[in-house]
Design brief:
about 425 residues, 5-stranded antiparallel β-sheet, globular
Length: about 425
């Protein structure tokens, strides 16, 4: 019998992860749903079901073989759900490659707009309405500022996150903002000199824009809340305003490829990387996180470990499953799909930068690989498709497609049995 190569969930094609999130769900999910600590939404059931069967025979296995030596490779189908830890990273790489070809030839900055935690109750009750407000307000704040101060129209890419390091509810938007734009009068590309920003002005503008939308929603009786009257609601907003709303900005990055690789960590990936899982034992799971409130002598956040029982871990993680049909990545200004940027204003990266992006690694160690599982290194030939098999209700089914070469039936009869 020939040697078989398997590219499934445990293959080196996806790195050497010590623990798999799907294993923990397979062990305890069916028990948890019998008496969940919090209601489970349909999209959360769907996310878990997809993740549990990702790269298993339930979704199907494509079998390929070398036409000369007969070496067989099994390619497991992926679920492609954006909450899946493995599929989300592959999505990030594809997204980064697509976006970098449409970026302005300007420095870009990573900007984070965060909502106060006192608003968490309203956000959970009004979900997509207030999340839409956050997207719009964050982008409008920067576009209005650049328009009035520099007469420039920038490009903005926004990515929504609802989680922090310990996976508690923490709503914020990561943004890639071009540090400059197209001059509205000359139609020329202009960069902003220096990196100084009047933070208090931007924070106040951001807060006022968001609260204006919130008050209008309340006055139209569209806001789900538990306030007795408008006076109590306004007192609630006043308490929130005792502290400045948070905007964080990184220094400008001169090469857009660097920005995309950097922001790629925050884009389509799942909220918990499997590389951060440090232990799974019995009913408990442990994962490492960065404590930004405590830093070492070098100013870097201290890494800690958090252990949770499955009854606490499941609802904490699943609250971040994206809402159905809700776009967590959006484009504004010059990067909006309706705008066509002149090619002379676009950044043309070098071949080296392209290779760097393709081989990009995120901070959890996930990476792509140069190994082609469908190429036989021994015979120097491409492997050809044999058939697809999948498991359903304890029965194995097979889909066979026509191949372009003949096989010795005796040699592979045990394979297709």
């Amino acid at each position: 019998m020939c040697d078989c190569t398997t590219y499934g969930a445990d293959s080196h094609d996806y790195g050497n992860k010590q623990y798999k999130l799907s294993d923990f769900f397979n062990e305890w999910w069916d028990t948890y749903v019998q008496s969940p600590t919090k209601p489970i939404r349909p999209e959360q059931y769907k996310a878990v079901n997809y993740m549990r069967v990702c790269r298993t025979e339930r979704l199907g296995v494509d079998h390929y073989a070398c036409p000369d030596c007969g070496e067989i490779t099994d390619i497991y189908h992926s679920c492609k759900h954006r909450f899946c830890p493995t599929c989300s990273w592959k999505d990030t790489i594809k997204w980064a490659e697509k976006v970098k070809d449409n970026m302005l030839n300007l420095p870009h900055r990573h900007v984070v707009f965060t909502l106060p935690h006192q608003l968490n109750g309203l956000i959970k009750s009004n979900d997509k309405h207030l999340l839409n407000f956050l997207f719009q307000v964050a982008a409008d704040t920067f576009q209005d500022w650049m328009n009035h101060k520099y007469n420039l129209k920038p490009g903005v890419i926004s990515v929504l996150h609802t989680f922090g390091e310990t996976k508690q509810f923490h709503t914020h938007v990561h943004m890639i903002v071009s540090w400059g734009g197209i001059n509205k009068e000359t139609n020329q590309l202009e960069a902003i000199k220096g990196e100084y920003v009047k933070y208090k002005f931007l924070k106040d503008k951001y807060r006022c824009k968001f609260e204006d939308k919130l008050v209008k929603m309340y006055d139209r009786d569209e806001l789900k809340h538990q306030f007795r009257d408008r006076e109590e609601f306004m007192r609630f907003l006043k308490r929130i305003n005792q502290k400045s709303w948070c905007i964080h900005m990184e220094p400008p990055m001169s090469i857009p490829t660097q920005v995309i690789r950097y922001i790629g960590r925050y884009s389509k990936r799942a909220c918990l990387s499997e590389y951060k899982i440090t232990n799974i034992e019995g009913e408990e799971i442990s994962f490492k996180y960065k404590d930004y409130k405590n830093k070492d002598i070098n100013g870097k956040p201290i890494e800690k470990e958090l252990t949770l029982n499955y009854r606490d871990f499941f609802p904490r993680l699943l609250q971040h499953v994206p809402l159905p049909h809700f776009r967590i990545v959006r484009y504004y200004g010059l990067y909006a799909t309706k705008n066509k940027i002149d090619e002379k204003h676009l950044y043309k990266g070098s071949e080296k930068e392209q290779q760097d992006l393709e081989n990009a690694q995120d901070d959890q160690g996930e990476n792509t690989t140069d190994i082609d599982p469908l190429y036989c290194e021994k015979c120097q030939k491409e492997k050809q498709y044999l058939y697809t098999s999948f498991e359903k209700k304890n029965k194995t089914n097979m889909i066979v497609k026509r191949t372009e070469f003949n096989w010795e039936k005796e040699r592979f009869k045990d394979l297709v049995a």
